[in-house]
């Protein structure tokens, strides 16, 4: 687990796609812009990703009606391709992403340190919604015969 002493929250999903496909969709910025939202009234307008220890990522998330937006980013601490990504968010919180291969499916487990502005349940539901959006996107891309 994360050793900073902050409370952690876990979300998870099983994606009906092989881990190599899941990894690529998770880390490719053009794909990130398609799935990185908690609801259909939000979208990611820009994404940058330097996937290496010490590299950083930055995503801009905005309400589609233009009423609100925020930046989400951090620095990568550890990467094991097709298995694990750990990073530190801009506010110092740690996040761990496990990609567990199970034949042609991938079980993703995300553990993140909670912040103090929103309730743990709101944070859990938001991160779970984004993970569910990823699952839907990845499974649609896997079913796409043009791949």
From TrEMBL:
InterPro entries assigned: ASHA1/2-like_C, START-like_dom_sf
Record Pfam families: AHSA1
Domain of life the protein comes from: Bacteria
Domain Activator of Hsp90 ATPase homologue 1/2-like C-terminal: 16-139
Membrane spanning stretches: none
CDD domains: SRPBCC_CalC_Aha1-like_4
Family: Belongs to the AHA1 family.
Name of the protein this chain belongs to: SRPBCC family protein
Species of provenance: Paraflavisolibacter caeni
